[in-house]
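Can anyone check this?
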Amino acid sequence: MNTEAKLIVENDVDGYETSELDCDFNDDETKPVTPTHEDNADPINDPKLVSTKPGAIKTQGQFIVHTKLAHRLFYGRKKGTQIIQENGKEVKKQIKPIIGVTRFGTNINDIYRLASFDEPYADAKLIEIEEGLKQAKDLLLENIEALRQLLGEMTEMQINPAFSIKPITLPLEFSTPFFGYEATRIVKNYDRLVLLALTTKQTGDILDSDWNRIVNKMGSKIRSVFLLSTQYRFAGVTRDDMAANNEKARGAIEKYGELPQEILEGRKRAKHAPKIRSNKN
């Protein structure tokens, strides 16, 4: 092999221009290169195979639930009436709705989408919900750890946490990143909390008053966070509208109130807020 040939062999393919590599696919270099396949794929491939593309990407999952309280918190409850016996008489009792994880996830989709169109009120609601989820999760983990330590302090015997003899598996699928899955993590931890509370109540280490403080109030806290997703209404303004203080902006302020400047300027957003889509075409 002569020196010139050796140098060509040792050159990396990245050292060639694209036009030089393209000539391997065309016998006649004088003819313009016309794509014969979708996406300008290598013509060595069968066109039918190239045109068959993967479908949309989905993230699906599942989780196991042991308690009825957690199950109700996941699927929620619609508003209605219930007939109960009171002092020997049938009385209609109003049943308040419960916003479960499934409804929460649907509501979040709308708020998340509006936030991506630079609507500051949607961004503000995402911040509020994100902070609420964090507070609920932190309080849950704190209560779980307290009950676990209570069980661990028993020296006379070893007690395992209660469990369902027939737990159920619930499907998971959310369109919006983070929020639906974080809500599910909270419900799963609430499930653990209820099981631990049932165990310590059975052993006599907590009383009914403790149950109300630990389980019922924690459930109420979680429901209040999920309820935030229903309290947003379409404002129909962008940050540009607010900066211009135009008619739309003034109407939104009159209806929904002032927003902090850091939110209006986009300096403060939820950690898991969507990217803002450009309004420029």
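Reply from J.R.: I decoded it. The beta strands are 60-65, 80-86, 89-95, 168-173.
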